[in-house]
Write a structure and sequence with these properties.
single chain, 299 residues, alpha+beta, 3 domains, seven-stranded antiparallel beta sheet, two-stranded antiparallel ribbon, 32% helix, extended
Length: 299
């Protein structure tokens, strides 16, 4: 018996009898409503031209018989891959990984909340909490996280302050030798000049350390702020020793002394105020050097 090879639309025969093809729809389903289905099918992919990349000749309107891989979703003549199931399984975290991530998040959150609370108590008005825990609050905040608003002060700082230091060394014969004064501010100023993004270290560390000391001692270099005053003197000595190291000219450093030179900044000409040419010096007493001052320092 002669079989019919007539097909409708752009779908070529896929083999088999006419009866079998009559039951196939455009995508291999039921043949009922084939014409209606073809009219409403969206044109997802344009027909591939003859001789397109990939080899072979495909006529206009031909669809691919290649099934999408596992995890793919058919879209027209192509498919979209869902990356989360490329290997056939959904990615999950192991229990140890979840424990580590959770613990890390809790620690970071706790540290952030603690820091915010300390800064808040530092800036807030005096209360029963700040009066009771003032020493602990100051121990955490000063000097690294000290808060001040001098940028917005009506009378900002109008002075140039240079910090210098010298050391005392012990020779092999026991004799003591004193070095010349070394300008500690000069390297920081040189690093700041012509630098659009100077570091916090160059801008503030030495200057803030000096202000920290001055606010804790009177003109006779007497400590007026208890533990904070002692800490300020130790902090200055640490900064100076980071410049000198453990030895100077081959001899062990046994003492360090700091001093400041202060000059007033000339006011703008439009103010009509005279410029002061006075220079003030402040020399601190010698501080003995021990291993404690080098702990945590890079020398």
């Amino acid at each position: 018996m002669e079989q019919s090879t007539k097909t409708s639309g752009n779908y070529p025969p896929r083999g088999g009898s006419d009866a079998h093809r009559a039951d196939e729809g455009p995508l291999g389903g039921s043949g009922t409503g084939q014409g209606e289905a073809r009219r409403h099918m969206p044109a997802v992919c344009p027909p591939r031209a003859s001789g397109a990349a990939g080899g072979g000749t495909r006529e206009s309107g031909e669809t691919s018989n290649v099934s999408p891989p596992h995890g793919g979703v058919a879209v027209g003549a192509g498919y979209v891959i869902r990356p989360e199931v490329l290997d056939g399984t959904t990615r999950t975290w192991s229990t140890p990984s979840l424990v580590v991530l959770t613990a890390t998040a809790v620690v970071l959150l706790g540290a952030a909340l603690w820091h915010i609370a300390m800064v808040f108590l530092t800036l807030s008005p005096a209360s029963s909490v700040t009066n009771k825990y003032q020493q602990q609050i100051n121990g955490y905040i000063y000097p690294e996280f000290e808060q001040n608003w001098k940028m917005f002060a009506p009378n900002p700082i109008a002075q140039n302050i240079a910090i210098g230091a010298r050391v005392q060394t012990a020779g092999y014969d026991g004799a003591r030798h004193t070095s010349e004064w070394v300008n500690l501010s000069a390297p920081h100023l040189e690093a700041i000049r012509h630098n659009p993004l100077p570091s916090h270290l160059d801008q503030n560390v030495l200057c803030r350390a000096w202000e920290y000391y001055v606010s804790s001692h009177n003109q006779k270099e007497e400590n007026i702020n208890g533990r904070r005053g002692a800490l300020s003197a130790e902090y200055l000595a640490r900064i100076a020793l980071q410049h000198f190291g453990r030895e100077w000219n081959g001899e062990r450093i046994v003492g360090v002394q700091l001093a400041s030179r202060t000059n007033s900044v000339a006011p703008p000409k439009w103010t009509g105020q005279p410029a002061s040419d006075n220079t003030d010096y402040r020399v601190l007493p010698w501080s003995p050097v021990n291993e404690k001052l080098y702990q945590g320092a890079v020398t």
